[in-house]
Structures are given as structure tokens and as C-alpha cells.
Amino acid sequence: RDPDSGRLVCRSLDSLGVTSAEARRAWAIAKSRELERRKDDHRIGAQPRADLALPSAIGDYLRTASTTTRMSTFVGYEASLKLFAEWAAKVGLKRTSEITGRSLALFRAHLIARPSARSKKGGRRGERAEAQKKCAPRTVNKHLTAIHTALRSFARLGLSAALNRDVIADSLAH
Fold first, then answer.
1. What is the pLDDT of residues 98-120, one digit of tens each?
2. Are 134 and 112 in contact (CB under 8 A)?
């Protein structure tokens, strides 16, 4: 059982790449120690980790960012988090607890491969169309900075057990 939510959690060790008897035993020992450490943290007063729906967590973060950042920064964060939310919905990430280093690395690859947008010829003012070339590195880095900032906030609030400063930095690194 998860010490924070109390829910029964089932994991396939095969999907984690833990296939041999020795590896399974080592995984079980490490997991047992991790659960005991978390229970000890609860005993000394640690707050349970929350597990929010991703759109809700992003909305909460944006409400906070709207009052603590400049308007231009907020607009950039909002656009970047919208891209992240759309991508997460497409790949099936529904909750903050499902965000892992691997999923962040996949999102980074998605951003790099994404086509850039240009003004639509003959379109209405502000209308955009996809261009043949990929996004500029500056644009990718701008989005990654906004996502990095939001994910650090999620980690500080305990919204995902798999996220910490190092995992976020390593997964979104260039």
C-alpha cells in the first residue's frame, strides 16, 4: 500500500525491466526500505504527498504564477504548459504521480521534433500555420524553462514521488 494515499499499488516488474530472481529480490528489498522511510517521515510529521489530476495541478500553478510573475512571463508559462498538457493527454498522462524522468525526456524530444509556426498566408490577423522547419532551439529552451519551473513547484508540493530537482534537470537537459 502507498503510505501517502493508502491505496493498493500494483506494478509489473517485467515492465520495469526486473526479470531475474535476484533482480526481483533486490527490487523488493529496496522498495520495502523506501516504504519504511516514507512511513517514518509520516511519523515525524511529514505531509502526505498529493496526487492531483494534471490539468488541476497546472491550473493551480498558473493561478499562483499569475500573481507572482510578470504578465509577459505568465503568458509564456501559460503557452508552454498548454503544450505540455496537450502532449500529456495524447500520451495518457492523467495525474501528477505519473510524470517521470522518462516522460519528461519524451516531452523534450516531442518539442524538438515539433514544426515551427508562421503567419498564415491570406489568414486573419494572428492566425498561424505550421512551417516546414522545426522549432528554433531558443523556442524549445523557452518552453523547457517554463515546464522546468512548474515541475519544480510540483516537486516542492509533493505532487509526484518520482520528481525531484535532479530528475527534472537531467530529463530536460540539452
1. 888 889 999 999 999 887 776 66
2. yes
